[in-house]
Design brief:
The chain is 32% helix and 19% strand. This is Dienelactone hydrolase family protein. InterPro entries: AB_hydrolase_fold, Dienelactn_hydro, Plant_Biomass_Hydrol_Est.
Length: 237
């Protein structure tokens, strides 16, 4: 009796097993990802004095050390630091803060913020500039890839590069890359490889290497007065 019952159960199990098949379904879900971006917005001193003039704007993306929920840390490096020290710029500067200390920049959110600031101010849309350092440098490269029709020029300091997508960057956009030769956080080979590929494809790239400088190449880079003159000479083509 037991053997008959065993045989019956075995037949039922094998039958069910033979009928079981993987399933592929079609579906969709609308996602809604929110990002709260605190930011500084600098206006040149003649912005109010010339109400009929459209001004350029520079988007600055800080490094990982300035991420978090204390906006004042954004003033530690780059153009915001120079503004605190009294430097005057001929364009607006938008400096948002990445609220996530251990996450990459949400570049889609940054683009939405940039678009909002541009639309609410007297901005020359053909003279929107982009720069970033370290983690922000990587985000700058990413934005150049994702939004090739937005920026007139870009300067990147020791940022990780999207090498496989280099050709997606606007071929008419001038690029200036800075890197310290002794950088142990993001080796200079990261920039060297990217610059070589861009030049091979005919891009206009300036590459400044700093001997005996580590990851803090941004100190010298953003103190380069010629950088801001260079930005002001660029226009979206």
């Amino acid at each position: 009796m037991r053997s008959i019952l065993y045989i019956v159960l075995l037949v039922i199990f094998q039958s069910c097993a033979s009928q079981a098949k993987p399933i592929l379904i079609d579906s969709e879900m609308e996602t809604n990802v929110k990002e709260n971006l605190a930011y500084y917005l600098y206006y040149p001193e003649d912005y109010e004095e010339e109400p009929d003039k459209d001004f350029p704007i520079l988007l600055f993306l800080h490094g990982g050390g300035e991420s978090g929920d204390s906006l004042v840390t954004v003033k530690r490096n780059g153009p915001p630091k120079l503004i605190v020290q009294g430097k005057k710029f001929p364009f607006l500067i938008l400096a948002p803060q990445n609220p996530n200390e251990k996450k990459w920049w949400n570049t889609r959110a940054v683009k939405q913020l940039l678009d909002s600031v541009v639309n609410k101010n007297r901005i020359d849309k053909r003279r929107i500039y982009l720069t970033g350092l370290s983690r922000g440098g990587g985000a700058a490269w990413e934005m150049a890839v994702q939004y090739p029709d937005t920026f007139a020029a870009m300067a990147v300091v020791c940022g990780m590069t999207p090498l496989p997508y280099a050709s997606w960057i606007n071929r008419d956009m001038p690029i200036w890359v800075f890197h310290g030769e002794k950088d142990k956080s993001i080796p200079i080979e990261e920039s060297e490889t990217m610059v070589a590929k861009l030049k091979e494809m005919g891009y206009e790239v300036i590459f400044t290497k700093y001997p005996n400088v580590g990851h803090s190449a941004w100190i010298k880079a953003y103190e380069t007065e010629a950088l801001y003159d260079w930005f002001m000479n660029q226009e979206l083509k």
